[in-house]
Amino acid sequence: MHPNIEKVAAVLREHGVPGEIVVFAEATPTAATAAAQLGCEVGAIANSLIFDADGEPLLVLTSGAHRVDTDLIARTAGAERVRRADPAFVRAATGQVIGGVAPIGHPAPVRTLVDTWLGKHEVVWAAAGHPHTVFPTSFDELVRITGGLPVEVE
């Protein structure tokens, strides 16, 4: 098992999350591909998007059905500028690659905002540290295990 997946699994166990990590034969780097593999709505996929907020990482867990309004997120986060992070910034902040970034298992805590829209789904699927993996969770559980702030993102 990839070390990132092991790290995410350990954090899930620490937080008492019962869902098992699902490993796909093919990568699921987008919400649409993950939803197709799982047979769920794209809105039930929790995209883990890392932004550069005035030089600091900001994780936005957004419904796969949404686009993030960076101006809104900047105001919410109290940042002057929020922009999409490049792959090197994402890896430095999370230890994971784009397409597989989990909401947990990072080298250090990352400030997190959680899209309230995810609360419309009983089961939410989040990446588990690698582009071939996801785990089932819920909106409330995502907020709890990430220490995230529930917000509107679009």
Automatic annotation (TrEMBL):
Pfam families on file: tRNA_edit
Occurrences of domain YbaK/aminoacyl-tRNA synthetase-associated (ranges): 26-144
SUPFAM superfamilies named among the record's database cross-references: YbaK/ProRS associated domain
Top-level taxon of the source organism: Bacteria
Record-given protein name: YbaK/EbsC family protein
Organism: Streptosporangium oxazolinicum
Lineage: Bacteria, Bacillati, Actinomycetota, Actinomycetes, Streptosporangiales
